[in-house]
Amino acid sequence: MSEELLYWLAGDLRWSDFPPKADMIATIAALIVVAGAIGVVATLTIARRWRWLFDNWLSSLDHKKIGIMYMVLAFVMLLRAVIEAVLMRIQQALSVNAQGVVSADHFAQLFSTHGTIMIFFVAMPFISGLINYVMPLQIGARDLTFPFMNAVGLWLSAAGAAILMASLVIGEFSTGGWSGYPPFTELAYSPGEGVDYWIWAVTLSSIGTTLTGINFATTIYKERCEGMHLFRMPLFCWTSLCTAILMIFAMPPLTVATALLALDRYAGFHFFTNGAGGNMMNYANLFWLFGHPEVYILILPAFGVWSEVISTFSGKRLYGYASMVFAVMCIAVLSFTVWLHHFFTMGQSTNVNAVFGIATMLIGIPTGVKVYDWLLTMYRGRIRLTAPMLFAMTFLLCFVIGGLTGIILANPPVDFQVHNSLFLVAHFHNMLIPGTLFGMIAGYMFWFPKAFGFRLDERWGRIAWACWSGGFLAAFMPLYWLGLMGMMRRTAISFEAAYQPWLNAAWAGAALIVCGIVALGIQLVVSVRRRSDLAVPVGDPWDGHSLEWWTPAPPPEYNFARRPRIEDTEAFTNAKRDGRAYHAPPSYEDIEVPRNTLIPAGIGAAGFVCAFALSWHIWWAALLGLAAMWAGVVLRSLQGDTERVIPAAEVQRQNEAWLDCARQTAPVTRFAEVERINRGRAMETT
Amino acid sequence: MSIETCTNADCSGSGHGLLSPAGLIAQIQQDHLIQTVLIVSVVIVPVFIALPLLLWRYRLARQNVYSPEWRFAWAPEFVIWGVPVVIVGFLGFSLWHTLHRIDPYRPLGTGTEPPLHVQVVGLDWKFLFIYPGEGIASVNELVVPAGRQIAFDITADGPMMSFIVPRLGGQIYAMAGMRTKLHLIADAPGSYRGLNTQYNGQNFARQKFELKAVGPDEYRQWVRSSRNGPALDMARYAALAKPSVIDRPLRFGRVEDGLFGSIVAAYHTADRQPGDRLSSAGDTHR
């Protein structure tokens, strides 16, 4: 076959891009991905679950199922990214004046995929998933405003994640880090498919996230039930709203930045090249115009979770609700005014640096207020140290340390020294692990009984907490010190013997974090096995305050038999107190829910084909993928009959079955909330 | 940097980076770090005290006072907003003041001697130092007189890099076609590690150099002996600029006139292709 024909058919893709790879560890990783994929397909086939998977999950537009699928995506990607983190820790611990176990180039791919995955394909899906599941229930809605668009967002994110997985098997990934700074990521320094994989994976995710943000904001503005004024929403909804607004305004700069970089690489433009008038400073500004609000996109939903968890397990109203809302809004607005602190060292004037440094420290004020609001929420409460609450305590203690180092980094005089160092790495992991990730784990444990109808095993939850907390401290506190000693990030080898003990501690911490993940896995398996012991069909195991607890566990696809009408933030608490929580509504109505459709999954699949083909310059397939994506959108707009009616009689039957169950269930006090007798009907205890 | 064994004192990190400043700038940076930690402690230490206390006093089993509906009071509200506002005001003032003292573009107000000018070119994966006053150049070895401030002009001929000597101060980016500035001083003779902190390819971790601060006589002697080195003309520069790791420092006795300026200017001429370096002839990066 001639070279030209081969290029026309397969672009730059050749057999040599497939495994085995030059590096043994890379080959093993590729084989694990392939084996995993084959394993999933085989299991589904043997268990005859394909139809079930398509009918119940892949084609669903139900916000709750989409939320759960987001979380599954996040957990799968978390597994990969943590393994990469451990490999990097091993490499750095073994490469003080030595070679270590992976090549420098492989190490660079590891930190690039680790960062990209953790931000775009672990934290973001976790957040989108949790908001998807919880927020509509909390505001008494039946679904998001745009269920179809919601599914498109999910499948675009999944397509981006699939690109990351494909890059592990076919070809190589970018070595330019999660931020992809040009000019290093330009063709002159990074030829090959790696940066293109990064560009298209991130682009798919950023488009999906923009759509999701629009959907969340619209839902909160338009779908609240009667009486749910903005200032009666649970705090999680407020943080979801702020996150949604940040998504809408922060994701487009990223999409633009990656699109311009793509034009440089594909079409010979010079936006960020060294020569011909390009200027990488523009990229730095665009990227962090996204990148800094992104940090708050990641942390704000966790603030919402902490507010719910701490107030519920303290048996109290949230202290300073209005103050908290004001603080969150301050953080959201200020987050757009500080992006320059990511490059104090780029040579701009001292006054500019000073202004952005002070603006950054201003964010510390509302954030500090929130910490004290949580402490005051615990004051004069009835505190139970359940697993989610334990995570909350680790969060509070670690988060103030992260706040301190954040203030330190906001000071250009010190930032000049620790920029690009492990001090910075320690700081953002300090915010993202106890802040975001622990928040997501706590949220998962807190709302799991709602989603699946049974509680998670408490003992393994506590073991997971101990491993995660200890592991985090051991892995990242030494990095602060190493950063002050002058050890820089992204170094595959180092030459200072004094680093060794600290790197060893960090490695041990990473190992402990792996134990934490294993414990979470065991917790899930144990809980599924004991699900009848742990069942909470009535749906309110923790004496919850907000509307999501006022539904069966798991809730029906239409959420509420009759949409509630509320008169206070803690409507459910009041209803329980007045003894009218489980009364039947006067009448029932037909309910419309969206019909299932496979078009969103199809759009995601086409997006994957397009992105993969673009990375390898297979132009015909890229065009085909793009055309198929648009065809999916057009096809949907031609569909007339997209809703399905659940008759009032059926709603009544289901709702009365639940109410009967609730009435027959013995209420439990908080003393027994992790005992077997907790069937989900919590009773107020004084 | 030679291979050292890690004694107890050494492993603690003393003698490294910001923990052990050896120049005015790094000293100010360390002082500022310590001051910031102390001020911020006012708001974070109470959290460490209050949290265990709250957990103990209000645990369910203890059946202490319970006020489930208590949700707001003005007194704590003033404190939790007021104290951080005051502290950030204080920190902001101190930030402004310190930052202007160590503005990397401003000459330090120390000593009577004029600063020593050094031009730094970040290359894959080494640093070229040009001494315009002395007409010499070196690679991966920066010898300077102790106690005399150094005024750096910095650029890169390659992807972006970042220039730092942790025990003295810095850092600032080195970018192709651009010129950044930095002023540092070494208070006492000694050998200090300098490095690139911005990832720029597979040998990034090997892009480091030694800054040697020496007495005035020793410095003059070093300059004199350097003059014996080969000339750094355009051809030799082109070879040097190709991606490589230089294990042992190089010295050049003469430097082509205006080399630094032409390295910066090269990225501004219209006929340059994107990503070209001066040494573009057929090199590959990876």
Structural account:
The complex is a heterodimer of chains A (686) and B (286). Chain A has helices spanning 3-10, 24-46, 50-58, 63-94, 104-138, 147-169, 194-222, 235-267, 280-313, 321-334, 350-378, 387-410, 412-418, 422-452, 458-484, 500-529, 571-577, 599-615, 619-638, 648-664; strands spanning 591-594, 643-646. By secondary structure, chain A is mainly alpha-helical. A two-stranded antiparallel sheet of chain A has the order 1-2. The longest helix of chain B has 34 residues, at 24-57. A six-stranded mixed beta sheet of chain B has the order 8-5-1-2-3-12, covered by helices on one side. Chain B folds into two domains: 17-101; 116-268, Immunoglobulin-like (Sandwich). Chain B is built from six helices and 13 strands.
Strand line-up across the major sheet of chain B: 8-5-1-2-3-12
Q: In percent, how helical is the residue content of chain A? A: 55-70%
Per DSSP, the total helix count of chain B is 6
Largest interface: A-B, 110 and 104 residues
Order of helices and strands of chain A: HHHHHHHHHHHHHHHHHEHHEH
Q: Beta-sheet strand percentage of chain B?
A: 15-25%
How many strand elements of chain A?
2
Percent strand of chain A equals: under 5%
Give the overall average pLDDT of chain B. Answer: 88
Rg over C-alpha atoms of chain B, rounded to the nearest angstrom: 25 Å
Judged by helices, strands and strand pairing, the structural class of chain B is alpha+beta
What is the CATH superfamily of chain A?
Cytochrome c oxidase-like, subunit I domain
Shape label of chain A = globular
